[in-house]
Each structure stands twice: as structure tokens, then as C-alpha cells.
């Protein structure tokens, strides 16, 4: 609610106009049966003049109502769109201030839903609020009072009808809310099942699991249909039932007017307007009830967005840290790291120093913590205990810009963004020139296929980079890493999809072109790190060996074991 | 119009089994509408009778004979109409809500089932997001329309016709007056609808683009953070956001305007009816009681006459969305399915081997990827496929499993073309570990048992042990019951691959294909898996694709693929001795003491 209030503030003026217009509209529709009544009276009295003036008043009322309605729509749309756009912009800004840990905690898919669906819900809620919800109480109270004024004798019919409808709608809407919550969950589940069967379509087919998948989906979908039917039944009972209540009220009014018509002849002219007011009260309650069910969905969304706004980024940078040119040194001081929610540490008590320009290889079993260690250097996470220093500066006190300038991290899973190849490379260096692109592509062995495109670096990357093979994606992602000539370059198993020849060429180019850069290379293949100055061996989160290849062969049994599995076959050398 | 026909065809397919219920709904809806229209007539009559009674009662001459009986009769008739209208409405809405929930459920399952039967080509050439929107948006639109719009359309049309019919029955002049403003209303509605449609299309386009941007950026957040691109990303978001704001604003103004416009028009019409009505009463020399009753009736008619116009214009968008959705779903239903030959051969076990004969293939007709590939795998052999990225290795695997069919040549199992096998029996005996590992929502156990849900826990654990992932799984607090999904990060990249291997081992296939199944697994674990796999592979025919040559040294035959052609073939020793392409790859990668 607080968030909504804050975001509504800039639109106070528009909200005011929109509500004003609604009031005019509501007033106009309230006044209308009264005028009608006067017209009737005039006709009975055969007063042509009265009929004329009242008729003109009716037309004026219609025009006023119409204009007010249009004005209301315009302002309501302006406000709801404004609030939604601001909400999206601010939420996006907030998300961009998150650390990677924050994002993982929400999960990326979940954040996307909060940015899109949830904001949409709120936008609709605001629109509905400004268009209808303010009108409903005005209409209700107004119609109620006017009904009492029009035929004071029948006050009890009005009250009885309201009580009956409100009571029964309470019961029905409560049920309805429960089912709506179920529906939302079922829809989410159905969509997840559909999404997964698309992503894993090759697995499903190669395991002949089409029927099982369909059965799983059908079970879910049947449940959804069942709840949908129940809601449908509730609606089909509710609306005729409410109508019946209001019909009985109408019938009773007419009967009582007829009954006492001799004593109260004026009632005869009043009965039509009275019935109009009854109907207005009825519709006000109905619409109000429906709106409140929809509104409750909007409030759920609001709560989810609130959770984003209230999250404090768990990695922050000191704003007063001076921007400096960092050297390529990297130091770990007794670093331990546990993933949030995990019990066992992924890294335990790791200390080392890397000098600028050194090449370091990191090897170790699957799940030994190589990626985790590398992620601490660009500060994707902060260590649980201990310190990480880059260029001699503790990461907790570093200037963010300086760190980004210094470190480039090429991920294990290559991610490219849709757009041009050049857009992706420019992410590594915002003011890169075509010459920079060419040089980076040459180093990454990407030039070979990029130059084959007619449009070269302007070639489009499709969504999910579907138009590149695994090896091509990796090479472009390496090119993005090297284009800015970083002080520290981290390659996380970045050549796993390259054939041996291309891989070797990448290594040679890196040695030549980025001689002054500290290179940290994570690899499964010993051949990728063989010529490193030093190799770090990780085992279950511990640093169990450091040294050049030949030294490690002698001292580290784990390294020796890895090596043995890759040694060339006996007879060939 | 073509779209409309396709959409109707789609609806027909799913609604025809409900023809009885639907016919009933139509009749009951018309009845309900009839009672709804008839009730005000009796109300007017009641008031007329009442005022006649009052007049007679006040008049000393008729005072004694004044009777309220006609009034009570009219009142009774009104109440009966009201009651019947509520009852029929209940019946029609009860049946129709059941039909719409059931049909949309069947449509959903129908779509899912259809997707399961479609070719891989379709999924390779269509974005997941677009296919998913069939579920999330198109089916939803159809359900909403069936639930709210179609039956409403029906009853409003009936009401519209009913009101016109009744009006002419009452007073022809007043009926014409009531209808006089209709062309104007339709013209205005048409204009507003066209504008709204235009802007809603723009809005959907802009929203799609914005969602795409958000999705991509947040999923690539690791890059954004490590490259320090947050400000650039925020700046990039602004124009998308602004565009959505503008487009939605216009769409909302136009579609929101329709209702007050129509309501205003309805009121104006009401005033006109009153003017002419009272003018008519005075100038046509009707008696006052009749005139008064007539005006009351027409005041009601005028409002009821405009109600369908207002409603139909406001449900128009809903109907339009449903028709577009049905058309899209109908397009999907017309997509080719995987061809499964009638009475196809059953593959029981592999007798002689697998063979590719002069295989030509391209994903697009004008771009051939494989140019006459010949490969022979004898029963019990392990054949390795190596070659640079993009040379066509995965493509060959796609053909073996019939994800795609060759354009020329043939793929044969035991000398029988794969196209002649029963698809299910073929895939039952071909086990594949894919290049990209996929996890499904569920427990770790569900994921390993994916291909054989009925497998025992012992078999599952044995498979996990062979894939060298058992120890890690039991180290998790919940072991095999740990909940996972594709996004979850409990597993490192290599561990995910191990899980996929366990999944395939469990199905115990006769012919095994490994497509870079261990590219992110460390070599020690890989060697252990291989030792375990040697048992699995022993006596089994297998096809291994790998960049890491060490994994394939033991192969009976190595096939080197380059640019879609086999350039070398032979045992490791022979190929190294040949000093060709393979020898170069090998020397680049291996470490020598
Ligand atoms: N985001 C995460 N949340 C929780 N646990 C994680 C997360 N990422 C990794 N782990 C766990 O931390 C350990 C180390 O994982 P890491 O990704 O660093 O391994 P790795 O050495 O890079 O392995 P691989 O060679 O397979 O890439 C693993 O046991 C893994 O299960
Ligand atoms: N679904 C597809 N649609 C169109 N072209 C494709 C498709 N899949 C692959 N290609 C193209 O076909 C060629 C061969 O691709 P394939 O995946 O068989 O290579 P690969 O040898 O497996 O490479 P990698 O070592 O990267 O896995 C490539 O040029 C690729 O761009
Ligand atoms: Mg890793
Ligand atoms: Mg491949």
C-alpha cells in the first residue's frame, strides 16, 4: 500500500480530476431517475412546459455524464499507465542494484513475472479503482438515499434487499476467493509443465515419454477444468439468485404501492424511479463484490512487488571509494564461502596470491568449487569469511567502476544477448572500435566465422542465440571478455565446446596479445593449463595443491590422478 | 475471413460433442430473454391498470365499480416472468459454464498432446515463448470468450431482436423513434473499436518486446553484473517501458471510452423517447392512462434496446481475441506429426548393426549440412565421431533417432530403414545422452527414473553409481527426494551431465549415443564413468561424440567428420599414423611427458 501511495503521488492532480469526473458521472446517473419521475408527473399533469424543461435537463445530464465518463477514462488511463511505468522502472532499477545472490534467491524467472504480470495486475487494479470502484460507493449511497426519499413508505424493502444480497454475496465471494487462489496455482503448474516439455522435448521423445507427459499434464488440466466448472456453477447460481432477490423486491414494491394507492396517489409516479434505484443498488453491490475479488488478486501482486523493493542488496559498493587503475594482482586471505541456504561450505579456508601478468590454471573434480572460487573475484558473491583483494584493494572497499574495468569473466555457459554481434562485444568495452572487434575476434578464433557473414559484426544474434553452434557461442563470449583488454581475465571452462585445434589457437593468441593480463583459466583438460605459471588444484572446496605442472605431478596425488586420465596412450609417444 | 473460417472449424471440432447441451442452452437463453423482455410489459400494464383504477376510484360515477383485479393479474404475470427468467438463466448458465470449462480443458490437453506428437523441426524453428503463449494467452482468451462473450452475444442478440419485436407490437411510431439513433451509435462504436484494436495490437507488440528484453536481461544478469552494465541496462529498458506506456494508454482510452459513450447515447435516446412520447400522448389524443403506461414501457425499452448495443461493442474485443487464438491453435493442429509407419517393424534387439548410407541432409532445403555420409557400426562396436564444431555430429545423431529424416540416402538398423520401424520401438532401443542436460521439476529420483518410471530404487541407485553421482546425491540433506527444477543450482554444470547419464543408463538401451555427454565433467570422474560404462557398453553398440579425444581412444573405429563429410576413418593407431586431420587434433590436445 505504501508503495502504491508513493507511486501515486506524482499523479495527485490527475487522480483528483479522474475522481471528480467519476463523481459527476455518478451524480448524473443518480439524478436521471428523478428527472424521469418529474417528467412522468408533468405528463400526468399534462404540463407541456414542464415536460420540455425536464426533457432538456435530461439531455444536458446525458451530455454531462458522457463528457465526464470520457474525461474519467482519459485521466484514469493516464494515472494507471503512469504508475505502472514508474513501478516498472523503479523495480527494474532496484533489481539492477541486486547482487547475483539476491537474484538467485528470487530466481530470474520469478523476477520477470514480478516485472511483467504483477505490474500488469496493479495497473488494472488502479484503472478499475479509478473507473468503477469510486463510483460504486457513491452510486450505492446515493441510490439508497434517493430511493428512501422517492418512496419513504417502502424504506424497509430497500433495507431488506440490501441485507439479503450483502449477506449472500459475502458467503459466495468468500468461496470464490478460495477457488480463485486454487486456479492461479493450477494455471502456474500447467504452464510449468508445458514449458518444461518444450525445453526438454528431445529428452521426452528419446525416452518415449510422450504419453506419460500427456498423462501428467492431463491430470493437472482436468483439475483445472474441475475448479473452473465449480466457479462457473457458483456464478450461475449467484447471479440468478441475486436477480431473484431484486425481482422480489420490485414485485413487493409494486404490490405495496397498489395496495395503498388510494391513500398515496403520488406513489404512482414515483414507482418507476424507485424501481430504477433498486436496480442501481443491486448493480452497485454486484459490481462492488466482483471488483473486490479482482482487487484481492491485485493486492497479492502488490505484496510480491513490495518484497522486491524491500530487499536490500547484499553486495554494495562504497560510494566514496576513489576510482583507481587497479593492477592485476589477486589475493585470497583465508576465504571460506557457503551458498545461502547450504550447510556445507563450497570453499574452505583458501589463501593465495596471484601476481599481475601471471597465468593460473585451476583444475579439480566436478563440483569441487572452481566456478565458486572464480565468482568471488568479480564479486558476484562476497566470501562468508576472509577477504578477497584485487590490485591490492579489498573488494569490500573497492570502487565498482574500477573493479569492472579490471576484471573480465567468461562464463561456463555462454550467454549472448539478442541484437548484433557488435552489441554483444561492446558490452566488454563501450567505446570499442571496429579494429577492437577484429582484434578480439581474432584472439577468440571467432573471426573465422564472423568474417564469413556478409554483414560481419552487424550479424544478428537471435533469441537464445539459436543461430550459433555451441562452439561459436563460446568463442563470441571469449571475444567479449578480451575486447576491453582487462587486467584480469577469468575463463571458466570456456573452451569445452571447442575442437582441439581452435582451442590451441585461442591459447596462443591470448599469450601473445594479452601478455600483461593476469589469466585465470579453469579447465578440465590438463592441456589447457599445462603452460600456466602455476596450477591450483581444488578438492571439495579446499586448495590442495599449488605449483607448476611438473612440480604438481610430483607433489599432488590428485593432480597426478587427473593427469593420468589424460596422458597420451602408451604406444604413441 | 479465412481466419474466421479456420477459427470456426476449430470451435466446431471441440464443441460438436456438446451439440445437445449447446442446442438446449440456445433455446433456454432465448426463453430467458423472452421472459426478461416480457416482464416490464406487465409492469407497465400493472401501473396502467393501477392508474385507471385510481381514476375510476376518484371519479364518483365509477367509484363503486373500480376494481384492482386487473392490476393484480398484471402483477402476477410480471412476477411469473421474473421468476421464469431467473430460472432459465440459471439453467443456461449452469450448462454453459460446464461446457466452457470442459471444452477449454479438452483444448488444452488437445494442444499438449498434439505438441507431443509433432516433429522436432517444429520446436527447432519456433520460439518456446511463442508456443507457450498458446497456453497462457490464446487458450485463456478462448475460455474467457466462451465463458462471458459467446453466450452473452447470444442472449444480447435475442434481447435485441426481442425488444424490437415487442416495441413494434406496442406502438410503431414510438418504436421508430427509439431506433432512430442506432446508425449513429454503430458508426461511433465502429470508429472507437477500430482505433482501440489498432492500439491494442500496438500495445501487445510493445509489451512482447519489453517482456523479451526483461527476460533476457535478468536471465543474463551474471554478464550484466560482471561487466558493470547495470546503468546501461536501465537506460536500455527506458524506451521499451515508455513505448508500452504510450501504446497502452491509447488502447485503454479508446476501449474505456466505449462504455460511457454508449451510456451517454442511451440516455440521449431516452430523452428523445420521452419528448416524442409525451408529444404523442398529447397530440395523438390518447387517453392519459394509456399514454402514461406507454411511456413507462418505452422508457424501459429504450434502455433495454441500448443494452445489447453497449454490451456487444464491449465484448467485441474479447471475441476478436478468441477468434485470433482459435486460428493460431488451428494452425498448430494442422502441423505435420511424426510419421509412424503403419505395422512398422519392431526393433527387438540389434542383430547386425547400424548403417548410414550416402546420407544427405539439410535443415533448410537450400543449405545441405551432410553431403553423402557413409558410416557403418557393427553390432557390439563402439564408434567415435570427432570433428570441428559445426561439422554435423549432432546432426547425425538427430537422424539416428529420427528427430529428422534424411533428404537422400538412408539410415538403417539391421538393414532396415529407420523410416520403416515403429517409432516407439526404435526409440526404446536407442538411448541418447544429449549435449545439453535438462532437468524436470520433481525430485532427483523422478529425474533419473524419467525414462522408466516403474524402475525400482535399487536399479536407480545402481545407475547413479555407474554415473558417479550417487555419492553427491546422498550427501544432499534430502538425498534422492531433493526437489529440483531446471533453474535450480544445487548441481554444478558437470553434475547435471552426470544425472542425464544415469537417466540413460537406467533405460538399458541396445544402441547408445553419447553426444558430448561429459564435456563439463572432470576427467577423473569421466574415467570412472568410463570404467563403469565399459560394463554397460560391453556387448552394446554405441556411438560416441566427443571433443575430448581421450574418451574415445578405446573406440573400435573413429570417424572424422568435417564440413558434413567423412574425411578419415579407422582405429586410433591407424589415424595417428596417417598424420592427417585427426593426428593434428590429437597432438594439439594430449599431454606428453
Ligand atoms: N548457486 C548455488 N547454490 C547452492 N549450491 C551451489 C550453487 N552453485 C554450486 N553449488 C554447489 O557448490 C559446489 C561447487 O560448485 P561449483 O559450481 O563451484 O563446481 P565446479 O567446480 O565449477 O564444477 P563443474 O566442473 O561441474 O563446473 C557443488 O557441490 C554445487 O552443488
Ligand atoms: N536446428 C537447426 N536448424 C538449422 N541449422 C542447424 C540446426 N542445428 C544445427 N544447424 C547447423 O548445422 C550445422 C551442423 O550442426 P551440428 O549441431 O550437427 O554440429 P556439431 O558437429 O554437433 O557441432 P558441436 O561440436 O558444436 O556440437 C551447423 O552449421 C549448425 O549451424
Ligand atoms: Mg563450474
Ligand atoms: Mg553437437
From TrEMBL, chain A:
Domain ABC transporter residues, every copy: 330-565
Cited SMART domains: AAA
Domain ABC transmembrane type-1: 16-297
Keyword Lipid metabolism: no
Compartment(s): Cell membrane
Keywords, comma-separated and alphabetical: ATP-binding, Cell membrane, Membrane, Nucleotide-binding, Transmembrane, Transmembrane helix, Transport
CDD domains linked: ABC_6TM_Tm287_like
Membrane topology: Multi-pass membrane protein
InterPro entries reported for this sequence: AAA+_ATPase (IPR003593), ABC1_TM_dom (IPR011527), ABC1_TM_sf (IPR036640), ABC_transporter-like_ATP-bd (IPR003439), ABC_transporter-like_CS (IPR017871), P-loop_NTPase (IPR027417), Type_1_exporter (IPR039421)
Transport among keywords: yes
Record-level Gene Ontology MF annotations: ABC-type oligopeptide transporter activity; ATP binding; ATP hydrolysis activity
Transmembrane parts of this sequence: 15-31, 51-75, 125-148, 154-173, 231-256, 268-287
Superkingdom per UniProt: Bacteria
Gene Ontology CC annotations of this record: plasma membrane
Protein name: ABC transporter ATP-binding protein
From TrEMBL, chain B:
Gene Ontology molecular-function annotations: ABC-type transporter activity; ATP binding; ATP hydrolysis activity; ATPase-coupled lipid transmembrane transporter activity
ABC transmembrane type-1 domain location: 24-321
Principal location class: membrane
Keywords noted in UniProt: ATP-binding, Membrane, Nucleotide-binding, Transmembrane, Transmembrane helix, Transport
Transmembrane feature ranges: 18-37, 77-97, 149-168, 174-194, 258-282
SMART domains linked: AAA (SM00382)
Locations listed in the record: Cell membrane
PROSITE patterns: ABC_TM1F (PS50929), ABC_TRANSPORTER_2 (PS50893)
Residues of the ABC transporter domain: 354-588
Pfam families: ABC_membrane, ABC_tran
UniProt cross-references to InterPro entries, sorted A to Z: AAA+_ATPase, ABC1_TM_dom, ABC1_TM_sf, ABC_transporter-like_ATP-bd, P-loop_NTPase, Type_1_exporter
A GO CC annotation given for this chain: plasma membrane
Membrane topology: Multi-pass membrane protein
Designated name of the protein: ABC transporter ATP-binding protein
Species of the source: Leuconostoc holzapfelii
